[in-house]
Amino acid sequence: MIVGEASAKVAVSPREVFEFVLDLDRYRQADHKIGRVGPVNRGGSGGTAVFSGRIGGLPGPSGTYPFTLTPTSLRFRSAIAGPARWFLDFEGSFECEETGDGTVVVHREVFAFKRPWRWFLDPLLRKWLENDTAHEMVRFKDLVEGGEGGIPGSSQP
Description:
Layout: E1 2-10, H1 14-22, H2 24-27, E2 34-43, E3 46-55, E4 58-69, E5 73-76, E6 88-99, E7 102-113, H3 118-144
Antiparallel strand pairs: 1-7, 2-3, 3-4, 4-5, 5-6, 6-7
């Protein structure tokens, strides 16, 4: 199992954070682990999102990922359909806490690769996921607050 976690304080509400993240075509500007995006279906306090991943810059399998939404959190779980469900177990979350001067967003991603990929990919991708999640939150802050995105001095959009 590998974990990436990072946080950012943003000048928008938790609702705006979640609306931005659930617009996966826009959010993939911050999260370069998202490949092709399919439909996002919402109903009540949850729904599903179809997308393929990019792991370490390489295309990954697609899946249908269920999510739940509360006033302070958005949580994605492992794919329930598509080839991704045979490749890895996944948890992704955005926890928001409103403060007097913005919203603190803690983003966490957990990848648990299934056999036979686990023994090879866990050590190979551990640092990558930690670094990628930190860079993602820098891009996220800029984008959700209306900026152009990217990391100063980086070639990444």
